[in-house]
Amino acid sequence: MINIAFLGNKYISDEIKSLLSGDAIPTTTTKADIFILSVDSANDLINQPKRFDKPTILYIKKNDPNLISIIKNYNFSGILTASISKENLIKKIMTIPGMESNKNIDELEILKSKILAKAENIPPLPVVAQELLKLTRSDETSLKLIIEKIKTDQGISSKVLKLINSPFYALRKEISSIDQASMLLGTTTIKNIVLSISIEEFYKKNFSLYKTTGNELWQHSHDTAVIAEFLGKKCKLDPDACYLSGLMHDVGKIVLVDFLLKEVDDYNDEKKLTGTTHQEIASVILSKWGVNKDIINAVLEHHNLSDNIFEKVLYYSNQISHNMNDEGLFETIKKELKIKIDDLLSILEHFRDSKHE
Ligand SMILES: [Fe+2]
Ligand SMILES: [Fe+2]
Fold this sequence. Notes:
Blueprint: E1 2-8, H1 10-19, E2 24-26, E3 34-39, E4 56-60, H2 67-71, E5 78-80, H3 86-94, H4 99-102, H5 105-120, H6 127-134, H7 140-151, H8 154-164, H9 178-185, H10 187-198, H11 214-234, H12 239-248, H13 253-256, H14 267-274, H15 278-288, H16 293-300, H17 309-322, H18 327-337, H19 341-356
Parallel strand pairs: 1-2, 1-3, 3-4, 4-5
Helix pairs in contact: 5-15, 6-10, 7-10, 8-10, 9-10, 10-12, 11-12, 11-17, 12-16, 15-16, 16-17, 17-18
């Protein structure tokens, strides 16, 4: 028998009390082992304390879409969002303490389906990015037309120039126009840089539960893209596809971050908390955005070393982007991808310099 204090809405509490009769003893907050706080909807939480001194399960009658964002601020040990069977309710109580690591399967399944639904409803890419994604290397004329359009957009142009003038591209003099840039670096480089810029908006949110900022995460994606493009060229792969895979590899985090209830270190933590990972969510987002299958597969596998050379390039590019000083990693890459280490080190030097600016 468990001692439970029933808090919140009296009528809803009575429903749970009768459901638990025979298994629980209703008691006061001082004598209780756990609390069950019953509310009708997420709005009712406003009047409730944010911290409870005993493990507390939230029982919410109406399935409210705002719930996820509101409950982040509370320290609940479990959440029941819909009508629940006695069996599941007891199972839920028995998993306390530490609901984050012991969430029952049903609850994770519900959460996962909500996350997938949000990924399915991701806003489309900006029009310019949609147009660029459709182009191949042979579409020089269309690419030039798009670049002409970009030139008329002050915002994008100045961002392109800022990225191009970063030490990575190792240009001897400062570039001040898009025309100059496309002459020196080629239209494809401009295309890829514009793609990076066009997804920046999606990263403008709070990523503190990933222990990073939106800007850092976007910068990491761009770095990974540039490294992947470089390695891709060396490995005789399509460098644009490599770039895109690097750029998009962590895009799942832009949706998943809204569902994390505490800080995470890696995708295993994501899985425990949400039932899914940023790789899986990225695959949903990328298919919505019409990105091709090979890229989606590489993104799905970017935390596992596979035998596929394209996937390997993305895997190592992500690793390099995280560990730019890891000599052992460079040695491994040299052997695995059979590329000259000098080229790799010189590109990383530019990266490192740019980080210290
Ligand atoms: Fe990742
Ligand atoms: Fe990453």
